[in-house]
Structures are given as C-alpha cells and as structure tokens.
Amino acid sequence: MKKKIIAAASVLILLVGVLCAILFMRNDKEATASVKKVAVEVVHGDGKAETFEYSTEAKFLGEVLKENGLVEGEEGEYGLFITSVDGEKADDTKEQWWCITKGGAPVNTSADQTPVQDGDLFELTLTEGY
Description:
Layout: H1 2-32, E1 36-43, E2 49-56, H2 61-67, E3 71-76, E4 79-85, E5 88-89, E6 96-102, E7 105-106, E8 121-128
Parallel strand pairs: 1-8
Antiparallel strand pairs: 1-2, 3-4, 4-5, 6-7, 6-8
C-alpha cells in the first residue's frame, strides 16, 4: 500500500514538472520571438521629417536601424555611434550629431543599448553643437 502511494505521488510530481517545463518553454519562445512595430522619425538638417515604420523581433534600437539600412556608424565603447541617417551624414566641422529621442524625450543610451517595445516611436534628429 505504501509503495502504491509513493509511486502515485512520484507520477504526479513528474507530470506537474513536465507541464511546468512545457509552459515555460512556450512562454520563453513567445517572449523572444514576439514581433514589435517600431516607428523612427528622421528629422534632417533642413527640418524635413520622414517616418519609417518597421516590424521587428529585435530587442534593441541599434539592431532595427542597422538591419533596415537606415543608419551608418562606428562601433565604439558603448555600441553604435551613428554618423549617417537616411543618407545624411553629420558634419563634424559644424559639430553635428544625431540625437536619439523616444516620444520627444531624450534617450541616455546608445542605439545598441536602447530597448524597443511594441508601439515605440523614436526620433533621430540632426543636431548642431556639442
């Protein structure tokens, strides 16, 4: 009798473990493979703006920008340093640089360190003066 109870308990524990593992793997796949819609507004030096919309599985803004060919740049200590956006290159002699904002608020990380979520709107603005 005791052996039957131990065997039944063992089977129950095993089934619960398998169920938990299946649920964990399913949720993990959904989290890593979720497609997000991200928009990037580019504000050029002449003030003209254009918005680009992307569907992506990328986790960071830098990945989105690079895989869609929107930016060029140099890899640095903190990741991608953007030098050109939508074909317009920042001019160092004029102290120009590409400022990243999200919904109008400053982003204090590089593009490679800025996470993306579904529905995000980022702005890349050519800015003058350091």
